[in-house]
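Board notes (copied after class):
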Amino acid sequence: MSDSLPRILIVDDEVNIGNACVKILAKNDLEVHYVQNGQNALAMMKAMSFDVVITDLKMSRMGGMEVLRSIKEKYPDTKVIIITGYASISSAVEVMKLGAFDYLPKPFTPVELRSVVQQAISSIRLHAQQPIHESGRQIKILSHQLVGRSPKIRQVVSMIQKVAPTDSTVLIYGESGTGKELVARAVHANSDRKDEVFFAVDCGTLSDNLLSSELFGHVRGAFTGAYQDKDGIFKRANKGTVFLDEISNISYEIQGKLLRFLENREFIPVGGSEVQKVNVRLIFATNQDLAKMVETGKFRKDFYYRIMVYPINTPPLREIVSDLPEIAERFLRLFSKQINRPVQAIAHEALQRLMLYEWPGNVRQLKNVIERAVILCEGEILETNHFPEIELSAGINEPASEIINPENLLAVTPVTNEELKQMKQELRQQVSQQLEKNFILNALIQHNWNVTLAAEKVGIQRTNFQALMKKHDIRRPPKQSGS
């Protein structure tokens, strides 16, 4: 489900029907979007996730049957409701066979539409409450983890879903700051070991002797300072999961010990002689190319092939730039609450500059940048001046058209006409959403958060104005002490 309100997408080339559906459903605490053809619907679904899609069967550009097939292939958890004025038993049977949730013939009443949508939402909620080993499709990831709806993030989530119920070894690779530990924790949280301990170890910060002692434990007298027996992480993590980060930094000797441990989950504590056996799942991570390290003799070949059971790649932020607005907004809400600042949104120009930046530190760097910006901000909207490092890199006095160049945008520049059209649609949607949010915020700020007055001045009915506030999760900031 969406983070706040269930998200609905209406697809119908008859504008009056589409607008009527929006009007009917917007009154029911739903976030409703509308497009006039199937191509735009699929493009929008690349930019954001939808819980329910309501599509007309007969449309001039990409019919509902094709939309249904594509959605069930790419977004199997999304419920699809078919509406049509050409109702027949054969067409109803066909769409249900293809995986449609329900079939609604035209004309239909508002009650019928609300009813079928509510049934779809209830079905999603019921399914999401099932444990992963029963549902086989749901994944329990905390709200601050793995934010994003781009194909690459969806692929990561799909891979977690498949491997989590097993005890297979996982290797997570990707640049620093891409969330490798979050993926490891998601694998653990969705496994049968979820109620057991999860240990995270940074192998790059420990010497060989200390790492051996930490992992395998030691007996009294094993080395200077070993005054008593100590259980290692593997023993303490019995029945749980151990995450070993930055394994490219460990020595051949430790690699050999881990290789033997992987074979039968047996080990001997440092300085000891008694073999101990545990039931531990291992997840490894690295930001290095281990294959190249094997070629140059810096990493054991046998250990490399032993841990390459199930690799998961965490993409860099520059390759999932369409997810940046959602990730940034999540961090904005987090730090606004933690720091107790009334910051509500990111200005369009500032957001555009964030999307053009290279982000060498990836999501971890974005998180720090947003936190710093919230601290600097004295108002309710983050402007470009709240991101000094981004200003410096982009050249704040240059127009946006001049700071776009092929070298900086190589990872996000479309290479085919179809990709160009899809990316333009995604960007238009993102800009439209941010513009709408800033429009409402500006009206509220200009009129001292008087909703009735703000709605009147901008020419929107108060109920519609409040619906937009709810859509963008805009709330009056708490009064500051002393004000």
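Comment from the instructor: Confidence is low (pLDDT under 50) at residues 129-144, 392-412. Residues 417-446 form the longest helix (30 residues).
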